[in-house]
Amino acid sequence: MVGMLQIVTYLLCVYLVFKGFEILQIALTSARQDRAAGLIIGILAVVIAFGAAITFSRMIDSQASSVSSPMQRAPFTP
């Protein structure tokens, strides 16, 4: 079962990737003659966004699995 915190974290990961591509698009559509610095920043933003998204999703998955494991074994007491 996916908890609300996991859903919010997955949405954050998607948002980070979209923002990385947005920065790259801005660099690609720049009208400046020397766009190399902007392109490097845009590519770095996409790579960092993907890395952060993968890291965050792995962290929240491991946290959720470690929290849910003891709860499945615990007996229900009212």
Nutshell version of this structure?
The chain is mainly α.
Descriptive keywords:
mainly alpha; single chain; 78 residues; 0% strand; 2 helices
On the 0 to 100 scale, the average pLDDT is 82
What is the total number of structural domains? 1
The Rg value, from CA coordinates, equals 19 Å
Number of helices: 2
Instruction: Using the alpha-carbon principal axes, give the shape.
Output: rod-shaped
Report the sheet-strand fraction: under 5%
Largest sheet: none
Going by helix content, strand content and strand pairing, the class is: mainly alpha
Question: How many strand elements?
Answer: 0
The N- to C-terminal Cα distance equals 22 Å
Helix content: over 70%
Stretches with pLDDT under 50, minimum 5 residues: none
- Element-level helix/strand string: HH
Fold and architecture overview:
The chain is built from two helices and no strands. The protein is mainly α. The protein has one domain (4-63). It is rod-shaped. The protein is 81% helix and 0% strand.
